[in-house]
Amino acid sequence: MREDDGRIRVAVLFGGRSGEHEVSCQSAAGIVTHLDRTRYAVQPVRITADGQWAAGPQDLPAGGYDAGELARLTPPRGGAPWDSLLDTLPDLGGADLVLPALHGPDGEDGTVQGLLQLLRVPYVGNGVLSSAAGMDKEMTKRLLASAGLPVADGVVLRGDRADLTAAERARLGLPVFVKPARAGSSLGVTRVERWADLPAALAVARVFDDKVLVEEAVAGREVDVAVLEHPDGAVQAGPPLEIRVRGGQPFFDYDAKYQDGATRFEVPARLPEGVDERLRELALRVFETLDCTGLLRIDFFLRGGTEPVVNEVNTFPGFTATSQYPRIWAATGMLYGELLDVLIATALARSQARSVADAVSTLGWSLGALADAQASPAPSRR
């Protein structure tokens, strides 16, 4: 419900039970800090690491917030998680829009998106199907490969399967990357240089997911492309950003992403002629193939420095002021707050269009039912 002064009520949902809880809290702190209070009344809503839901003040004053301050503003009451969710539903349902700054399972995977759709509350970002498909690396690869998009070769290990066949080893070669199929921020990812180390890498990955992907190592540069949908439905790919890991990590792992100050991002990336355009074209095709809405970050490898290979996608990427997605748009002149404005306006425009479509569909059904009733013979009386 809009405030009396016309501002849009935005509930910023963050935290969650995934291994990316802290990253989500940092994203939310950036978002809450940069939302324009002349346009929005902002309410933080936190999901604690053990699943408690807690709503903060409905009109948080403007200012700089960090993750710790947001946690203090959203103290859980205790009790069963479902009780706290029931207590929080009026805050979510009463918002004009929810901005789910959630990363990983039970947040970025379609679960929360389904809840918000049931509440008929507009929300920023991807829907249930796109979120679920984007969270599952196996499903992402299958969908993209079926559309003719380049992906790395890999083998999926389910249940207690703990090894590859001789043919699979020969096909993938060494090194390989072992990844949980449904996790983000490089949690549980191991680079394996010797087949003897595969069981240990699988054990690390299965801490996060019982479905594991063993993937060929693509030698080449690592480049991200951000895609943004505008309120008029136009979809735009931003300039490629190259990741340069300099802190001694063997790849862009969790430490390199969030703890190593030596990691560098170069945007726009200095790429060979034609590669920039090719990456943007592929990014838009990935967005379309996964039926995305709002935003998406696509992580590519450049095999041999020139041939793009889709590594993975992020349906709600990291959103601190220094994260790759806001960095990419900042390089175009779109500041963090303006980016949030576009995402919110797009979500509201989509919701309005959906409401009109639902109304037309309901009207059509009602008129059809009325016509059928008028055409039916009157019941006989005895």
TrEMBL record:
UniProt cross-references to Gene3D superfamilies, sorted A to Z: 3.40.50.20, ATP-grasp fold, A domain, ATP-grasp fold, B domain
Domain ATP-grasp: 141-345
Molecular function, one GO term: ligase activity
Compartments it resides in: Cytoplasm
Pathway: Cell wall biogenesis; peptidoglycan biosynthesis
Keywords recorded for this protein, A-Z: ATP-binding, Cell shape, Cell wall biogenesis/degradation, Cytoplasm, Ligase, Magnesium, Manganese, Metal-binding, Nucleotide-binding, Peptidoglycan synthesis
Top EC class for this record: ligase
Keyword Membrane: no
Enzyme nomenclature, EC number: 6.3.2.4
Functional description taken from the UniProt entry: Cell wall formation.
Name of the molecule in the record: D-alanine--D-alanine ligase
Source organism per UniProt: Kitasatospora nipponensis
